[in-house]
Amino acid sequence: MRRVHTLGLSAQQWCLRLVPNTIKTSPKEQLRAVLGAAIGLFVTALISQHMGHHLSPWFVAPIGASAVLVFTTPSSPLAQPWAVVGGNTLSALVGIACATYVTPVPLAGALAVALAMATMLVFRCIHPPGGAMALLLVLTHETTLSFVAFPVFTNSVLLAIFGMLYNSATGHPYAHHALSDQGRDEWADSSRFTKADLDTALAHYNEVLDVNPDDLIGLLRHTEAAAYQRTLGELRCQDIMTTDPIAVQFGTSLQEAWALMRQFHIKALPIVDQAKHVVGIVTVTDFLKHAGIQTPHDLTKRMQTLLRPSGLSHSERPEVVGQIMTRKVRVASAQGHAVDLLPLFSAVGHHHLPVIDTEKKLIGILTQTDLVKALSRSVQR
After folding, report:
1. Is 347 found in the same domain as 243?
2. 264 and 246 fall within a common domain
3. Do 59 and 155 touch, CB atoms closer than 8 A?
4. Per residue in 211-258, pLDDT tens?
5. Which of 43, 144, 188, 190 is the most exposed place for a label (fewest CB within 10 A)?
6. Contact indicator for 63, 88 with CB cutoff of 8 Å
7. Residue 149 and residue 189 in one domain
8. What are the backbone angles phi and psi of residue 191, rounded to the nearest 5°?
């Protein structure tokens, strides 16, 4: 009896695999794709009919399948412009060759689809409608090469061009842009995984996956962000920042600023104007850079030289913090989520972020240590 129950459960599980997964796109996105396909096919057909009014046919059915991919999955490698144009056109050439030289239609059709697949793999333009294109030309016994140029190539180019315009205009860049090398490096620096790890995992499948590796990196980024959001919850910057930060003004002397940093054991000083708006930040790195320190042995002597006032009304070397500060300052909003700052600290390399209120006045400073402590407390709960 137990054996029967196990077999029955296995059969049930197998049947459940046949049930399609829920499409996780919003109704708005689905409407966008449907309208794009309708308008795209209409425009493509209208132009093609005008161009080939004396020819028949001037439109081919597999273009409809291409439209489904272009507008519902614009980021898919199978739907990119080269896949659409190259896949359909090369498959049409294969279909014509098979229709011309292979007599039995069943054999010609099978060969056409198989050879079209092989051709698309070689030229890196896998496009499922290409298989239908090759088979269509065999079944209609199309043997004229001009058919490849029109309507196949023309239809494909027109659809791809409209896809670029429509998808880009509706927030889905097409052709889909790969992640830059800098983006990959930033992700690798801030993640437990590297690009090589991802390549190894993809190689394990040893099959064509309908997803761009760069999109997987983006997916992992969002997954990590969601995990941090779940861990940190609704924690705001104002909840974990250091309040009443030590700040100086543009005209504060280097000697005074350095003394404050040593006294309070801090590595950065926000620089504010009379209204407490942040106009810059000065760090230990700024002091060391302007002191021209090359080796540890130079530290004491060169720092003394930098900090010593010249006593002159005009001096070529800096004497106040405003002359050595970093002017382009990244700031955090007091009401902002703390989790949103993780990429700035982990990937971009920031160590201190001034925190401002709704009036853009300095009210605190947030450091890597503050964020790590908050994360540690959240994990221990």
Report:
1. yes
2. yes
3. yes
4. 666 667 667 776 766 766 666 667 888 988 999 999 999 999 998 998
5. 144
6. yes
7. no
8. -120, 160
